[in-house]
Amino acid sequence: MVPAMRRSRQALPDADCEAILAAGTSGVLALADAEGFPYAVPLSYLYSGGKIWFHCAKAGYKLDLIRANPKASFCVIGQDKIVPAEYTTYYRSVIARGTVREITDETQKVEILRLLARKYSPDETEASMEAEIRQYLQEVCILELDVTQLTGKQNKRLVPSL
Predict the structure, then answer these.
(1) More exposed terminus of the chain, fewer Cβ within 10 Å: N or C?
(2) CATH architecture designation of domain 9-155
């Protein structure tokens, strides 16, 4: 487990963390290699009900690392406003930790791809989305991060009681 947040009054409640995850469009997945070195890769994603889904190719370094060690964290920045006069940044961010697994069930893959398509291509027709999914279904890998720990933090100026 991660140690307690040093500035706990800046911690975001779970509902705010989930809202940031639901609204976000990209984040950074962090993995560890066999020597313990971090590997962080930016990804688009989908969040719902304590799960984060990503799509990727069926082969690559990211998948090699996940297969060797499925533990991961995923960071999303919900707000990042530089305030030069105060020498600070008004930020809100979330880190989700958990384990990643590959979704192999084709029905589940199709449903997740539909949700991803609706999120990232909302103006496309259902027929267009379905055609795209069917065209690439055998080439795409869907990864699921089962969130076991969720933490969020914000700039102290964004906390009402500080």
Answers:
(1) N
(2) Roll (2.30)
